[in-house]
Write a structure and sequence with these properties.
Elements: H1 3-8, E1 26-27, H2 34-44, H3 48-63, E2 87-88, H4 102-110, H5 113-120, E3 123-128, E4 131-137, H6 139-143, E5 147-150, H7 151-157, H8 159-162, H9 176-184, E6 189-193, E7 203-208, E8 215-216, E9 219-224, E10 229-237, E11 245-247, E12 250-255, E13 260-267, E14 273-276, E15 278-283, E16 288-295, E17 300-303, E18 306-309, E19 315-324, E20 329-338, E21 344-353, E22 358-367, E23 375-384, E24 390-399, E25 405-414, H10 417-424, H11 430-446, H12 451-469
Parallel strand pairs: 3-7, 6-9, 7-10, 8-11, 9-12, 10-13, 11-14, 12-15, 13-16, 14-17, 15-18, 16-19, 17-20, 18-20, 19-21, 20-22, 21-23, 22-24, 23-25
Antiparallel strand pairs: 1-2, 3-4, 5-6
Length: about 475
């Protein structure tokens, strides 16, 4: 994080803004070198092919320039040499909550993870810094052949399922941050749902950064076999430090014919975090992939969930909410690639800019040659709360197929001062009136989130409004 950006960040209390003293048995130090790769591979006991794979990715990372088009210019302020690339207490996740180390347990208890697991989840994967600390799934799902583990265990215990798709949806050379993740990945979730199995309850991952100047590089791969269905939810928090923290995850989704995947994210990183992630799904014939995405935290966010529609009658959808306050840039959007005929995509994006916050929509809809009867609808709306608030839109639409319909709608609006005055005259504070107006703007999208997440999202929006006018 640049010094200038750091000076802009206002003080802010959130539920995730706390930390415990570091207690790491494994520490690869600062900077990413071949020695760092050797340290990570030795700690994990990885096979030689994976060590060389990581080193090939490191070489590509060094050679590739920073992304230009699909990235905000503000990422240039990130110093890769001042990041720690691997910190962990252990490489082995616990299956029983009582066996989790005390400070890790207290962290996730404070964040409400055990309560959520007991109340409505089919399984939980909780990552603390670089490694999964706790992983558990209901026994009845294991009996059906469902796999829910982390990337390290997936490579060793489920290599025959994991390896054929590993790095295939998002290849190593996709961009500089893809190469970085291929080199330094650790943690993240691997999920496989067998043919015809439909999960009635969601699986959840929670990514927690505790240590200063850490880079977290989780790797998530979800495979839904033919006719399978699942929902995966993730939450993210970190304490605020004076130095930059990097979160650079990679998420690959594979929906085989007739499968359905919903991927839900509520990101509330501290504002010293660079949140630079790559998320992409592959939808085969008749499959559906739906991203439901909310970005509240981080100083700079770079996130554009994508769906590659590879099979006829496949469907992709992105529903996103972004909130940018002083010192924040939320550069978010979506990509839809129609690589098969009779495919459908839908993008709904809403952003809110507070104070001097900046929110950007960056999107792509591409109908490849020969792909007829494709449909897309894109709608991106921005709400500006103050005179210095800013929003930008960078849409790209390319249509080669016949009998294809592509629609793009966009709007920018401001909060109506007369409406705020009217609500204040009826007993609401200005913060309450502002919160009511903002919730009205995004209400339809908030209802798309699971109930437990939508309640939390509304609470966070209330806090944002209190900070913005308090």
């Amino acid at each position: 994080m640049s010094n200038e950006l750091q000076r802009q960040l206002p003080p802010r209390d959130t539920r995730g803004d706390f930390s415990f003293p570091e207690n790491n048995a494994l520490d690869a130090g600062y900077g990413l070198t071949e020695a760092t790769i050797d340290y990570i591979s030795d700690a994990k006991g990885e096979p030689s092919w994976l060590r060389e794979f990581r080193k090939s990715a490191l070489k590509k990372f060094r050679e590739m320039p920073m992304p230009m088009h699909w990235a905000p210019q503000e990422i240039a302020g990130l110093d890769f040499e001042r990041i720690r690339y691997y910190l962990a207490q252990t490489t082995t996740p616990q299956r029983r909550w009582e066996d989790v180390p005390d400070e890790v347990k207290r962290t996730f208890e404070r964040l409400g993870v055990p309560e959520q697991e007991r109340a409505f989840l089919a399984g939980v994967d909780a990552q603390y810094d670089s490694e999964t600390a706790y992983n558990n799934m209901r026994a009845e799902l294991s009996a059906k052949g469902v796999i829910f583990t982390n990337s390290t265990e997936a490579l060793t215990r489920h290599e025959a399922i994991f390896r054929p798709w590993f790095g295939k949806v998002i290849p190593m050379g996709d961009n500089k941050f893809s190469a970085l993740n291929h080199a330094a990945f650790s943690g993240g979730s691997f999920i496989y749902v067998p043919k015809g199995v439909k999960l009635a309850q969601p699986l959840q991952a929670y990514f927690r950064i505790n240590s200063e100047s850490l880079g977290q590089f989780e790797r998530t791969l979800i495979i839904a076999d033919e006719g399978a269905e699942l929902m995966y939810m993730e939450g993210c928090t970190a304490p605020k430090y004076d130095t930059a923290t990097l979160h650079s995850g990679v998420v690959e989704l594979v929906a085989l014919p007739g499968a359905k995947i919903q991927y839900v994210t509520v990101q509330n990183w501290a504002q010293n975090v660079y949140n630079l992630v790559i998320q992409r799904g592959l939808a085969m014939e008749g499959a559906q992939i739906r991203w439901i995405d909310c970005n509240i935290g981080s100083g700079v966010t770079m996130k554009y969930p994508a769906v590659l529609l590879r099979g006829a009658h496949a469907r992709g959808e992105v529903v996103s909410i972004s909130i940018a306050r002083d010192g924040q840039l939320q550069d978010t959007g979506a990509r839809m690639i129609h690589a098969a005929p009779h495919t459908t995509s839908n993008i709904i994006a809403k952003s809110i800019s507070i104070g001097k916050g900046r929110a950007s929509y960056r999107g792509e809809v591409n109908v490849l040659p020969g792909m007829g009867n494709c449909r897309n609808h894109t709608e991106c709306d921005a709400l500006l709360l103050h005179s210095h608030s800013r929003t930008d839109t960078y849409p790209a639409i390319t249509v080669h197929g016949d009998s294809t319909a592509v629609q793009h709608e966009a709007s920018v609006s401001q909060v109506d001062e007369e409406m705020l005055f009217y609500m204040q005259q009826r007993g609401l504070t200005r913060a309450q009136a502002m919160s009511l107006a903002v919730n009205g703007f995004i209400n339809d999208l908030v209802n798309e989130f699971p109930m437990e997440y939508s309640v939390e999202l509304r609470r966070l929006i209330d806090l944002e409004m209190e900070d913005s006018v308090g």
